[in-house]
Amino acid sequence: MIFIKTEEEVEFCRLSNLLVSRTHAMLASEISEGVSTNYLDKLADQFIRDNGGIPGFLNYNGFPKSICISVNDVVVHGIPSKYVLKDGDVVSIDCGAIINGFNGDSCYTFEVGNVPQETKKLLICTKEALYKGIEKAIVGNTTGDIGFAVQTHAESNGYSVVRELVGHGVGKNLHEDPEIPNYGKPKKGFNLRDRMVIAIEPMINMGKRDIYVEKDGWTVRTRDHKPSAHFEHSVVVRENKAQILSNFELIEEVLKSKLN
Ligand code: MG
Ligand code: MG
User: Which ligand is nearest to the CA of 167?
Assistant: First the structure.
C-alpha cells in the first residue's frame, strides 16, 4: 500500500532521517583499520537511543543487529561481527532509526585507508547514480523514470545493477509501496505523487550483477566476489525538485576533517 504523507508526517520523516545521518557522521570518525564491525554497531545503537530514537533494523524480520555493515563483495544486509576492518576495505553502512513512529533509512559507503582507484570510481559512480535517480523523483514522473536514470548512469560506466533488491516507500513502515527498482523504463511503473516519501538506493556492482545469499539468511554477496557499493537517500517527492531528507553533507564534513 502507498501512503501519501501529511506535511506533519514528512517532518517526522525528516527528523528520523536526520538522526540516521548524524549516526553516519558519528561513525565516519570511528571507521578505520583495526575496528570491528560489532564495535561500530554498538556505537550506532547507543547513539540512536541517546538521541531519542529506536534502531529501525534491530529485530526487523529477525535481523540481529542495529545496523547493516556490508564490506567489499557484500552487497547489503551484512551482519556486524568480529570482523576487523582492514586497509583498502569499502564498507556500506545502512542505518535506520525511528522517531515519533516514523522510519529514517539511509546508506553510505565508506573507504578504509587506501582504497584502489578502480573501487573509488565505483563508489563515485554509485553516488552519482543515486542523485540522477533523485532528479527524477518529481510529481508526474514514474518509478521507471528513476530506475532508468540510475541504470543508465551505472551501465554507461561499465558497472551492473543489482535487480533482486530495490528501493521503497518509507514511513511508519520501513518498507512501503511502491518498490523503486534501480533499473527500468521511462514512463513505466508507479506514478509519483506529492508527499510520497521514498528511499532511493542504488546497489551497483563492479563486476556482474549476480548475487547470492549466504547460509545466515541475510548476507548478500556478489557471485564474482568483486566489490559492490550502496548509497541511499530518503526523499520526499515534490512538484519540481525532490527534497532529500537524509544528509550526506554531515558525513562528508567529518570525512574531510579526518584527512586534515
Ligand atoms: Mg537502507
Ligand atoms: Mg532502504
Answer: 2
DSSP annotation string for 11-73:
HHHHHHHHHHHHHHHHHHHH--TT-BHHHHHHHHHHHHHHTT-EESSTTGGG--SSEEEEETT
User: Quick check: 30 and 40 in contact, CB under 8 A?
Assistant: yes
Closest by Cα among 82, 95, 74 to 251: 95
**Contact, 110 vs 89, CB < 8 A?**
no
Among all bound ligands, the one having the nearest atom to the CA of 106 is 1
Q: Give the architecture (CATH level 2) of 7-259.
A: Alpha-Beta Complex (3.90)
> 10-residue block means of pLDDT along the chain (260 residues)?
96 98 98 98 98 98 98 98 98 98 98 97 98 98 98 98 98 98 98 98 98 98 98 98 98 93
DSSP 3-state of 213: strand
Distance 231 CA to ligand 2 centre (A): 10
